[in-house]
Design brief:
376 residues, Rossmann fold, Dna Ligase, domain 1, 26% strand, 12 helices, elongated, 6-stranded antiparallel β-sheet
Length: 376
């Protein structure tokens, strides 16, 4: 689950990391008031869960409260990478002398956390790694062993062109960032840029935190907010609400299956046979009629979908219950689209009978079924 910038900064402040003075607003008039309270030039930052806001026009600057109101009006009537701007963080504009990058994330290949720091902040770390890898310090961490303050200081000191005082401050922030990642079960904690101000302070000018969805039960302060944070299409948001694993694709054949591996292989074979999948949708093991009904409602509501392929390998999932869900959905849906079913496994005969009575043929061979749905 991604946190908004203002939420990430609230957490960093709790751990003693400096951030610019700022205030969240939801109306242009509030932006004018906030700028007046902050005093001096301000930055207006769209609170959307995408990177690269600045390049997309999501960050504007103002020299006084009146300009802040004008800039906020412009932002509130805009979309950033397809996302509407509903909230803006109004912050004091910082006099910056240097920019750094610090993060803690997961190296899945190494199966460890990795702490990174760089003297090149304010740009994508991938670009720095490609062009000037010597400007990045990396340290893999065994979670059980932990990450000491001394190791953090060693990382900071190893960076080129950094003085002793800055290395001490940077090392302290790196160590603190690791604590934030552990306490919040984070997949990513990132400050980019971490800026050095004219008064020689280090301050988080921007921040990102992504919490592991599987650990949200340990963070009740975010309960009930997951759906509003999804960078997703309306169908993906609706599927999340219904407890279904769904990803939008750009084809015209809707796909439903039970089990991620089965659905992935179904997408591949549909593509191989000349079709274009419209989605990935996994109803999971043991799904009943209601899950199938919800899945069909989401897929058939997508205008691009011309036909639906349902691929069921019945083990824990019972074919007869799946068939009941298909029939129930067809009786309720306003627009009926062609449906092709491949169904084998537990209570297969009963499921086939239910579908046949509803006028739906079922295949036992996946390739035959996919040929039919592609032809349709």
């Amino acid at each position: 689950m991604k946190l908004f910038e203002f939420e990430a900064k609230e957490i960093l402040r709790k751990y003693g990391i400096l951030t610019p003075k700022g205030k969240m607003v939801s109306r242009p008039a509030e932006a004018e008031t906030a700028a007046s309270e902050i005093g001096g030039p301000v930055a207006l930052k769209s609170q959307v869960l995408v990177s690269g806001r600045g390049k997309s026009g999501g960050i504007l600057f103002a020299s006084d409260p009146e300009e802040a109101r004008e800039a906020a009006t412009k932002l509130f009537h805009s979309t950033i990478k397809g996302l509407s701007v509903n909230n803006i963080l109004v912050e004091q504009r910082i006099d910056i002398t240097d920019e750094y990058y610090v993060s803690v994330t997961i190296d899945r290949q190494a199966k460890k956390y990795v702490v990174m720091a760089s003297t090149s902040g304010g740009v994508d770390i991938e670009e720095v790694a490609r062009k000037t890898p010597d400007k990045i310090a990396r340290q893999h961490v065994e979670p059980i062993a932990g990450f000491s303050r001394d190791k953090a200081l060693d990382m900071a000191s190893s960076l080129p062109s950094i003085g002793r005082n800055d290395a001490l401050k940077l090392g302290s922030i790196i160590h603190t960032l690791y604590s934030v990642a552990m306490d919040y079960d984070a997949e990513l904690v990132e400050i980019n840029p971490l800026v050095k101000t004219a008064s020689a302070e280090l301050m988080a000018a921007d921040a990102r935190i992504i919490i592991d969805d599987n650990a949200l039960f340990r963070h009740p302060e975010f309960a009930g907010t997951e759906v509003s944070r999804i960078e997703a299409s309306p169908a993906e948001i609706e599927a999340r609400k219904q407890g279904l694993a769904y990803v939008d694709l750009d084809g015209e054949i809707g796909i439903i299956g039970n089990g991620a591996g089965l659905v992935m292989s179904t997408l591949d074979v549909v593509q191989l046979f000349g079709g274009r999948p419209a989605n990935f949708l996994d109803i999971g093991g043991g799904a009943g009629p209601e899950s199938i009904r919800k899945a069909l409602a989401i897929i058939t509501a997508k205008p691009q979908v011309k036909a639906v392929f349902i691929n069921i390998l019945g083990g824990v999932t019972r074919c007869d219950l799946v068939a009941q869900g298909i029939v129930a959905a067809l009786n309720e849906l306003p627009a009926r689209k062609p449906i092709v079913v491949r169904m084998i496994g537990t209570r297969e005969e009963e499921g086939i009978r239910i579908l046949k009575e509803a006028g739906i043929n079922s295949h036992s061979n996946m390739e035959d079924a996919i040929r039919e749905v592609v032809a349709v």
